[in-house]
Design brief:
Blueprint lengths: L1 H29 L4 H11 L7 E5 L9 H8 L3 E5 L8 H9 L6 E5 L7 H6 L1 H8 L6 H10 L5 H8 L2 H4 L9 H4 L38 H17 L3 E5 L6 H16 L3 E4 L4 H4 L16 H18 L12 H27 L8
Parallel strand pairs: 1-2, 1-3, 3-4, 4-5
Helix pairs in contact: 3-14, 3-15, 4-7
């Protein structure tokens, strides 16, 4: 009798184990496909301890800085772990997620979202899910969910822990060969996380770049920034805090001045590119894809060049070009050069014809 009960227990345990083994890859596959999913999956596909820099932040990260270009010109392996409207509260947890497989010598944080109150971002679950639903299942993912989803929303948290509850109707994803490559959520990204944009959306250059004065950022974002800085100091991690050039307002510029004082007081560098339009060579009427919010491929070239020079001036990296372990980076650089030539021609043609991007309401 005891043996029979033991055998039943073994069968149940085996069934549960098989169910979970199937549930995890299916969950990865049915997550909605797109740039963010490809970027995170590509991050997990990178070889252990191979990245020199990890960039964390919102949408200004992945279209502004071409990792293949930086690699091809310096031998520095940089990868963007970013999502749309990424809440600043996620940054510390993404550093911890990175450290599970990588040991970058530098983290770069994009600071645009620190000017926005967290309440509005928190209310839109897409801004939280952009991070949590693109992480591999782990205890670190659970901790991230607990930090980003309000404690009083315990019932809602369940669909974050088991995101297949949200995506269970996406069975059509199982018919896509590209998603079968996501069974383990490790699918190499052809451009190392960079996103090409060849649209043109002009706007006049802001006249507040370099303006002085300070304005406090939302209190919850200041607390988040100070917590991130303390975390980096405690863990002995190097960080660079940047603001990518865009159609900023005077209020935002003064908020960056406020952030800069906090960051530099903790011994970290702060680079507001809105103070360097001329050095970057950015042309607001031509180099943006969507009216001053995100650069197109030509603008990305300029921002990548400027960041490259800043990195080489202030930090030390080993040129890894030619090493066998980085063959995929060489291939990505070759692929980027070909695509860049096409994008450059497309952008120039659109400017010549006055063909500008549609404004999405």
């Amino acid at each position: 009798m005891k043996q029979s009960k033991l055998w039943i227990a073994v069968q149940i345990a085996g069934f549960v184990g098989i169910f979970l083994l199937l549930l995890v890859p299916v969950s990865y596959m049915v997550r909605t496909n797109g740039d963010v999913k490809d970027r995170f999956s590509g991050f997990y596909a990178e070889k252990k301890d191979s990245l020199d820099i990890v960039m964390i932040g919102s949408s200004p990260v992945f279209p502004y800085y071409a990792a293949p270009k930086l690699w091809g010109e310096t031998g520095i392996a940089m990868y963007p772990l970013s999502s749309n409207v990424q809440r600043p509260a996620a940054m510390k947890y993404l550093v911890e997620e990175t450290e599970k497989s990588q040991s970058p010598s530098l983290y770069v944080f994009e600071m645009r979202m620190f000017t926005i109150e967290d309440e509005g971002m928190r209310e839109n679950m897409a801004y939280t899910r952009g991070v949590t639903d693109n992480m591999r299942y782990s205890l670190q993912r659970v901790r991230t969910i607990q930090a980003l989803v309000p404690e009083e929303d315990e019932e809602g948290r369940l669909s974050y822990y088991l995101d297949i509850m949200k995506y269970h109707t996406n069975w059509k994803m199982l018919a896509l060969p590209s998603e079968w490559a996501n069974m383990a959520y490790r699918k190499a990204h052809p451009y190392k996380g960079y996103t090409f944009k060849d649209e043109v959306g002009p706007q006049p250059m802001p006249d507040c770049g370099g303006a002085e004065g300070q304005r406090a950022i939302p209190p919850e974002q200041e607390a988040c920034l100070r917590d991130l800085l303390s975390f980096l100091q405690e863990e002995g991690k190097e960080g660079l805090f940047i603001v990518s050039p865009y159609g900023e307002s005077l209020e935002e510029q003064q908020m960056y001045n406020y952030m800069e004082e906090i960051v530099t007081a903790c011994g970290y560098r702060f680079l507001n590119m809105n103070n360097h339009y001329e050095e970057i060579g950015i042309v607001f009427e031509e180099d943006f894809a969507d009216y001053g919010s995100h650069t197109n491929a030509v603008g990305a070239e300029k921002c990548t060049d400027f960041l490259r020079e800043y990195l080489l001036e202030h930090y030390t990296f080993t040129d890894k070009r030619g090493e066998d372990a980085y063959q995929s980076w060489e291939e990505s650089y070759d692929r980027w050069k070909t695509e860049m030539e096409t994008a450059r021609v497309t952008i120039a043609d659109r400017i010549a014809r006055g063909e500008y991007a549609e404004i999405v309401e």
